[in-house]
TrEMBL record:
Keyword hit for Manganese: no
SUPFAM superfamilies, per the entry: ATPase domain of HSP90 chaperone/DNA topoisomerase II/histidine kinase (SSF55874), HAMP domain-like (SSF158472)
Keywords carried by this UniProt record: ATP-binding, Cell membrane, Kinase, Membrane, Nucleotide-binding, Phosphoprotein, Transferase, Transmembrane, Transmembrane helix, Two-component regulatory system
Sequence ranges assigned to domain HAMP in this UniProt record: 347-399
UniProt cross-references to PANTHER family, sorted A to Z: SENSOR HISTIDINE KINASE YPDA, SENSOR PROTEIN KINASE HPTS
GO molecular function, one term: protein histidine kinase activity
Catalytic reaction annotation: ATP + protein L-histidine = ADP + protein N-phospho-L-histidine
InterPro entries: Bact_2-comp_sensor_kinase, dCache_1, HAMP_dom, HATPase_C_sf, HATPase_dom, His_kinase_dom, Sig_transdc_His_kin-like_C, Sig_transdc_His_kin_internal
Lineage: superkingdom: Bacteria
Organism: Paenibacillus rhizoplanae
Designated name of the protein: histidine kinase
Length: 628
């Protein structure tokens, strides 16, 4: 059904006028390349924009992560300063000693009273530690608050903007738990929410480190909180450049910071966004609320924090779409102008052809006195000139047609009289065979019958084609006739699969090789010669081994034969002789190509093996000038 429909469309196109065909050709030639170029350009430009965005964003993210890493390293250095300031450690030891004694006193008395001397001591400790904290806090502008605690959780702090945690004891317990077993090393903690003394909720990530004395005994704890303004500025700059939204998470999936500050401290480890951001860096696409996003991420090797920036694809391709629309508009304008020009050209090209068609119709009606007016020397002008010459020739032929027809009939009669009809020979042999049978000479009748079959097959054109079954039958008939001449001297074995019976091949390929073996390889010392044809399948061709156990050839004779096969031109079959091996080899190469032909292997006294190669079934090469 579909094939019939396609044929109808093709027939409709074939029946179109030349003017419409030209217009259709112009339409296809103009529209397809321009459309293809527009689509490829848009796709390539879009992919280039996205690839450049990914590369550029990864560099920006890496720069931001490097800046954050440097900032955190500075916080870690600040947290290590109490280890080098003896005044801080001495004051912490004094504070620990005081509160240790106080706890002992509280255990002995029901109420604890602070003596005036104790107040002076505590005030001295507080001033000593907080002055050092102020010094530490002024070293790095990016820090927000620095807290130092003694071993009993009593906090000392200095905040630049007055925003101090109200839950210092709870924070101390949490920080102490996190640095257990750290061996005095700094520990980076993710973003936490806390309430300041200004009654506002704030967020900060913290570097916490235990403070050790000279004997590596913990005497306190220092916590350095980050100022989010530094991180805020970097993320805002990144979002401004990429037109996306950023989120900073730690290795467990807890949000450190996000552009909209809606997910601070949230756990997104189970979200599809976090799961898709596998590895240290990369990019991927996803869809949120029906909008496609390009997500680019990169990780810090120092903190294992990861930045994920999500950029709407519409933002990336906004400029690409403008370019696409402009390209489409320009393409449509070019197509319209080109089609108008093609209409004019097709009309100008087909107008002379239309005039010639009208003249041909007059000629078809019997008016031979028409003439095509030649205005140009192009192909149409040449065609018109030939048209005029053709009409003149036709008029001349009409005048001579009766004489030519009479001469033609006379020549045909003479040719028929002088022609030898091969069927006369076949019928004569059949008559002789029937006469032999009537005279009870069965052997002669069989020989004549076989001879007739061989003659009928071999007298046809050598360039004709036959099936494998016909070729092998011809070989069998030949050997049978040979056996009638030399009784008991030849035995033929054919091992060819029946699946090759309908295999199409050129004629007279096997018989010349068998004939050559019978006449040139016959060993008089042996009572019988064994001939065989065996087929072998390989990956690239069919190989037929035509073997005999005759006298074989010495190396000199074999080399001469191989040389003749390589260089000798094929000879036509003659009346006095058969078709030689060189002829078979050359015809195979002419029909199938130089990859096919015959090879000869022989040893004196061991016989000869002729390997004939043909194409595999279904892949027979079509050689120019040959039609199987």
């Amino acid at each position: 059904m579909r094939a019939a429909r396609n044929n109808n469309w093709w027939s409709y196109i074939e029946d179109m006028s030349m003017e419409r065909k030209l217009f259709l050709v112009f339409l296809v030639i103009i529209t397809l390349p321009l459309s293809f170029i527009s689509v490829i350009s848009f796709k390539s430009y879009s992919e280039s924009i996205q690839a450049n965005t990914i590369a550029y964003s990864e560099k920006l993210i890496d720069q931001m992560m490097d800046s954050i890493d440097d900032y955190i390293e500075d916080m870690k250095r600040i947290s290590s300063m109490p280890a080098y300031v003896n005044e801080i450690k001495q004051n912490l030891i004094r504070s620990n000693r005081y509160y240790e004694q106080k706890q002992m006193m509280e255990g002995k008395q029901d109420t604890a009273q602070v003596a005036p001397g104790d107040l002076d001591l505590l005030l001295s400790i507080q001033r000593g530690i907080e002055e050092n904290i102020s010094f530490i806090n002024n070293i790095k502008r990016g820090t927000h608050s620095v807290y130092i605690f003694d071993a009993y959780g009593n906090g000392y702090y200095s905040a630049k903007d007055g925003g101090v945690r109200l839950d210092l004891q709870q924070s101390y317990r949490f920080w102490s738990e996190q640095v257990k077993g750290s061996g005095g090393e700094a520990t980076l903690l993710g973003t936490q929410a806390y309430t300041s003394n200004l009654q506002s909720t704030r967020y900060a990530f913290t570097v916490v480190r235990p403070i050790l004395d000279g004997l590596w005994k913990p005497v306190g704890l220092i916590a350095v909180e980050a100022n989010f303004s530094n991180l805020e500025n970097q993320v805002a700059e990144l979002d401004k450049v990429t037109q996306g939204k950023s989120i900073l998470v730690d290795q467990s999936g807890k949000v450190i910071y996000d552009s909209e500050q809606k997910l601070l401290t949230a756990d997104i480890s189970r979200s599809s966004l976090f799961r898709a951001a596998e590895g240290s860096s990369g990019s991927f696409y996803d869809t949120v609320s029906g909008k496609d996003r390009l997500n680019i991420y990169s990780s810090s090797t120092k903190t294992n924090w990861k930045v994920i920036i999500s950029i709407p694809v519409d933002e990336l391709t906004r400029g690409v779409k403008l370019t696409r629309n402009a390209t489409i508009g320009a393409t449509l304008i070019i197509i319209v102008l080109a089609l108008i020009i093609s209409l004019i050209l097709s009309f100008a090209l087909t107008k002379p052809l239309t005039q010639m068609i009208q003249l041909m119709k007059k000629v078809q009606g019997g008016d031979l006195d028409v003439t095509f007016r030649i205005k140009r020397r192009d192909e149409i002008g040449l065609l018109g000139h030939q048209f005029n010459r053709m009409l003149a020739r036709i008029r001349q032929l009409i005048q001579d047609i009766y004489q030519i027809e009479e001469q033609k009939k006379e020549a045909e009669l003479q040719a028929l009289q002088s022609q030898i009809n091969p069927h006369f020979i076949y019928n004569t042999l059949e008559t002789i065979r029937m006469t032999a049978e009537i005279n009870d000479d069965v052997e002669a009748a069989d020989m004549i019958s076989i001879l007739g079959k061989l003659l009928r097959y071999s007298t046809s054109d050598l360039s004709g084609w036959a099936t494998m079954k016909q070729e092998l039958l011809y070989v069998r008939n030949y050997v049978e006739l040979l056996g009638s001449r030399y009784p008991g001297r030849f035995e033929l074995t054919i091992d060819v699969p029946d699946t090759l019976d309908n295999y199409s091949m050129i004629k007279l390929v096997f018989q010349p090789i068998i004939e050559n073996a019978a006449y040139h390889g016959l060993d008089d010392t042996k009572t019988r010669m064994h001939l065989s044809i065996k087929c072998e399948y390989t990956e690239q061709r069919l190989l037929f081994h035509i073997r005999d156990d005759g006298c074989g050839m010495d190396q000199v004779t074999l080399d001469k034969l191989r040389e003749r096969l390589r260089h000798e031109a094929p000879q036509k079959k003659s009346i006095n002789g058969g078709i030689g091996m060189a002829n078979v080899h050359q015809r195979l190469q002419l029909h199938y190509g130089p990859a096919y032909g015959i090879e000869v292997f022989s040893k004196p006294g061991e016989g000869t093996d002729v390997i004939l190669s043909l194409p595999l079934p279904g892949v027979t090469p079509v050689i120019e000038g040959e039609t199987p």
